Amino acid sequence: MATSLLQRIVQESAEMGSAELRVARFVSANPGEVIHMSMARLSQECDVSDPTIMRFCRRFGFQGYQDFKLHLAQSLVPSAPFAYEQIVPGDSIQNVVRKTARNSLNAIQRLLEDLVPQQVEAGAKLLHSASWVGIYASGISEITAIDAEHKFQRLGMRCAALIGRKKQWLHAETARPNEVTLIFSQSGHTKQMVDVAIASRAGGARVLSVTAADSPLANVSDGLIAVLPYDRTELMTPLASRLNHHLVVNMLVTAIAMTSGSEFPDQLPALDSWQTEKI
């Protein structure tokens, strides 16, 4: 996977002298501002000379400052394949903010390019036709299940987020025809979720999974909305990894609302006033 210019700047900072290091730190913390700065302004901000800025640009293979700024601007555009910028000890708060936002943008961009709209459409139709929907997840995906329950209930659907092994088994083993089991799993390799899918189908329910394609869970599901997982999710789950599953929930809600003839399919009905009393 290609290394972005910002990543290269961070990686090579340890080899820089004090003057170039000030430039590297300023650029990595404020890339969006730098692309609109003149060389004189950047020199002033970093308290270095113009020749130092030129040496810094040439270190990365650019002939001049304008060429450097052009590539810096391109590195700020979300790109596919997805590149996750790890936050490391010693990062400034500016880098924490930038990397968190950029990783989120990249995650959304990747979903836009990889998601199959027909899978979302088929999933929405399956959920809309169900007499009841059981929403299953474990670990970090439990947040997505609760979010889906809240939004589906606002549409008037009969559903429940089932959290915890005992509750999940109780419902999966008593699943019936006309019900749908909706499962969220980042990797699709969690044995508990695979077992839930098998048990639900044995009772006649249909299983819709939002998970990785060609995973064990996908292979035992009736319907699939394939979302590529992050690398090494069995060890670490970046915070941005939740975003795509939450977006899929929003897509399903909107598609179901459209099927139901809603005038504003991308808006949920307001909660009762007693639930949202304001002061």
From TrEMBL:
Tree of life domain: Bacteria
Keyword Phosphoprotein tagged: no
GO function terms (MF aspect): carbohydrate derivative binding; DNA binding; DNA-binding transcription factor activity
Biological process according to GO: carbohydrate derivative metabolic process
Statement: the UniProt record of this protein carries the keyword DNA-binding: yes
First and last residue of the signal peptide: none
PANTHER family listed in its UniProt record: GLUCOKINASE, HTH-TYPE TRANSCRIPTIONAL REGULATOR HEXR-RELATED
Name of this protein: MurR/RpiR family transcriptional regulator
